[in-house]
Amino acid sequence: MTSATVQLAGRPVHRVGFGAMQLPGPHVFGPPRDRDAALAVLRRAIELGVDHVDTAQFYGPDVSNELIHTALHPYPDDLVLVSKVGAVRDAEGAWLGADRPEQLREGVEDNLRSLGVERVDVVNLRLMDGSDVPFADQLGEMVALREEGKIGGVGLSNVEAHHLVEALGTTEIACVQNPYNLRQREGQPVLDLCIERGVPYVPFFPLGSAFPGAAKIPDDPAVVSVARRLGATPSQVGLAWVLAQSDLVLLIPGTSSIAHLEENVGAGDVVLDADALAELEA
Predict the structure, then answer these.
(1) What confidence category does residue 212 fall into, taking pLDDT thresholds of 50, 70 and 90?
(2) What local confidence, expressed as pLDDT, does residue 250 receive?
(3) What residues make up the domain containing 206?
(4) Domain with 158 in it: what CATH number?
(5) Which helix (H) or strand (E) holds 137?
(6) pLDDT tens digits, residue range 127-148?
(7) H or E segment at 85?
(8) Cα-Cα-Cα-Cα dihedral sign, residues 192, 182, 10, 53
(9) Could you say which DSSP state residue 204 is in?
(10) Catalytic residue positions?
(11) Is residue 221 part of a domain?
(12) Are 209 and 266 in contact (CB under 8 A)?
C-alpha cells in the first residue's frame, strides 16, 4: 500500500481504507452469508495496513458494527473508525430517515454501544432525500456531540455544495462522503469545493453501485484496456482513477472477499500515466 496519508479529524490514515457495507447479508440486511469469512476480511484488512474503517450501525442493522467489534477489539491505536447517522432500517430492511436532532444523538449512542468505544473518531451526518429537518439543526446537534466528546469529528454525507459551504461557515468538517466514480461525476462541484477548502473527500461507490443492475466501472472497455496495458486489474484502475483526482481523496472500497480486499488495497500502488488518464477521460 502507498505510504501517503491524509489527516482525518486530526488522525493520519492511508488513502485506501475499508468500507464495511458489504459485510452483512444481501441488501445490507441481516447476518452475513459466512460470518467467519467476514471476520477474516476485517482482520486481513488490518494486516494489510488499513487504518480507516467505515461503517454504520444501520448496516444490518448492528451487523457491521458487531463484526468489527468481534474481529478487531481492542482496536489498534492507529485505527480510525468512521460511522454515520441519519437513517434506520425497518423490519423488512427498508431505509428510513432518522435525522431529527434527538434521533442523530440516539444514532451516535447506538454506534458507541455496538462498537464498544467511548468516542467514534468521525461520524458523518447522512442527509436523507425528502427530509424536512433543517440542516442547521442537524449540524448543531452533531457539533454538540463533538463538544461532548462522543465523536471526534463531524463529517457530511450525500450533500450538495451549498450544504458544505453552510457547514464550513459554522464549524470544521472532517470529511465529505458522496457518490463519485469514473462514470458518476455529478458530485464534481462538491469535490472541487473540498479540494479548495482542504476537506478530505471519501467517495462511496468508487467502482459503481454495489446494488444489482447498476453499471460497474471494471466492466468499462477503456478501464479494461488500461488495466491490461499497466498489468493491473480493472478494479484497481477504477480505484486509481478516483485517487488521482486529488491527494485529499480517501477510498473505502468494500468487499466480503479477502482476494478482492487485497486487490483493492493494491490499487494504492497503481500509477496512472498521462496516456492512461487521457484514455479513461475519453
Answers:
(1) low
(2) 98
(3) 12-213+246-255
(4) 3.20.20.100
(5) helix 135-147
(6) 999 999 999 999 999 999 999 9
(7) strand 80-85
(8) positive
(9) B
(10) 59
(11) no
(12) no
